[in-house]
């Protein structure tokens, strides 16, 4: 009897982050070039990983992405939402990427969103939907306090927020239940904490005060014989029942490795960072 090869079922939605298409974003100081991106997009199509995360502020990203056929992809973009011509910029972006509409549009700056009135926010949402730009509107957040305030003020469809083994601010069960109740889709970013949870050589002078946290983490990893830190960091997110994960890549080999992710035996880690506050710089790559 012939057994047909069936494609591997994706254990999570791998969202291709494209900030690496802009220079000097990654701590490794390496950028993702067009040749590598071409191979990544080809594999993404094959594996049915159709999510891409970008932003109007990623100048080089949109220029390079526009060279590919993205008709099958679900593209999430971010915009400032403050300029009068923001809607026009999104329309131009949609046309440049040759897509019918964005999967979602996120406010890139949570503080700017908080300054808006409910009426002003509603007018923006209506414009985005009436002009066929997107059906889903949300925000990308860095601060738990701000997210809680935003949720009280606005009705959102999407939230993009950081979470990883060090940063567990947004993994509060009550918050996740609330988001589920409101039917808000959650996208997790910063699962590798900008790469430092994978390779501590990228720890900058700005993080020198946190060496004990990294030392404790590395010792535990060795003691538990965890060989693939990337898989472990992803497993940590999946154990919290979150399966939309935004990851940026420097090259095709990194993307292929994550595409071949297999769920291994999970070991619950200890709390490596006791100070889980918005003011803790260790948890805030946006402040590095």
Q: In short, what is this structure?
A:
This protein is 35% helix and 13% strand.
Write the layout of secondary structure elements.
Blueprint: E1 13-17, H1 34-47, E2 51-53, H2 59-65, E3 74-79, H3 86-97, E4 104-107, H4 110-114, H5 118-130, E5 137-140, H6 144-153, E6 158-162, H7 173-181, E7 185-189, H8 211-223, H9 229-238, E8 244-248, H10 252-259
Parallel strand pairs: 1-2, 1-8, 2-3, 3-4, 4-5, 5-6, 6-7
Account of the protein in words:
The protein contains 10 helices and 8 strands. It has 288 residues and is an alpha/beta fold. The protein has a single domain, classed as NADP-dependent oxidoreductase domain (TIM Barrel). Strands 7-6-5-4-3-2-1-8 form an 8-stranded parallel β-sheet. Helix 1 packs parallel to helix 10.
Secondary-structure arrangement, i.e. CATH architecture: Alpha-Beta Barrel
DSSP helical segment count: 10
Q: Can you tell me the CATH class? A: Alpha Beta
Gross morphology: globular
Major beta sheet summary? 8 strands, parallel
Structural class: alpha/beta
Mean pLDDT: 91
Number of strands: 8
Number of domains: 1
- Order of strands across the main sheet: 7-6-5-4-3-2-1-8
Helix content: 25-40%
What is the third-level CATH name, the topology? TIM Barrel
Name the CATH superfamily classification: NADP-dependent oxidoreductase domain
Uncertain runs: 1-6
Helix-strand pattern: EHEHEHEHHEHEHEHHEH
Please report the distance between the alpha carbons of the first and last residues.
58 Å
Give the DSSP E fraction (strand runs of 2 or more residues). Answer: 5-15%
Which radius of gyration do the C-alpha atoms yield? 19 Å
């Amino acid at each position: 009897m012939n057994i047909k090869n069936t494609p591997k079922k994706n254990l999570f939605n791998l969202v291709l982050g494209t900030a690496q298409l802009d220079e000097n974003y990654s701590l490794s100081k390496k950028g993702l070039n067009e040749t590598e991106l071409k191979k990544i997009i080809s594999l993404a199509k094959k594996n049915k990983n159709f999510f891409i995360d970008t932003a109007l502020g990623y100048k080089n990203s949109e220029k390079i992405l526009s060279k590919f056929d993205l008709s099958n992809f679900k593209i999430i973009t971010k915009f400032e939402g403050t300029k009068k011509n923001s809607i026009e910029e999104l329309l131009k972006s949609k046309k440049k990427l040759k897509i019918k509409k964005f999967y979602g549009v996120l406010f890139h700056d949570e503080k700017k969103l908080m300054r808006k009135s409910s009426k002003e926010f509603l007018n923006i949402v209506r414009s985005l939907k009436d002009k066929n730009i997107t059906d889903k509107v949300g925000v990308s957040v860095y601060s738990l306090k701000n997210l809680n305030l935003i949720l009280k003020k606005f009705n959102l469809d999407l939230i993009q927020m950081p979470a990883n083994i060090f940063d567990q601010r947004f993994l509060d069960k009550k918050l996740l239940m609330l988001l589920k109740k409101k039917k808000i889709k959650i996208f997790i970013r910063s699962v590798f904490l900008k790469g430092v949870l994978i390779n501590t050589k990228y720890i900058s002078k700005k993080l020198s005060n946190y060496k004990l946290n990294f030392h404790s983490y590395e010792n535990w990893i060795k003691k538990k014989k965890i060989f693939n830190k990337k898989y472990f960091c992803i497993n940590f997110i999946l154990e919290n029942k979150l399966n939309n994960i935004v990851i940026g890549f420097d090259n095709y080999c990194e993307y292929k490795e994550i595409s071949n992710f297999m769920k291994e035996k999970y070991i619950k880690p200890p709390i490596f960072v006791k100070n889980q506050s918005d003011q803790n710089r260790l948890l805030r790559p946006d402040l590095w």
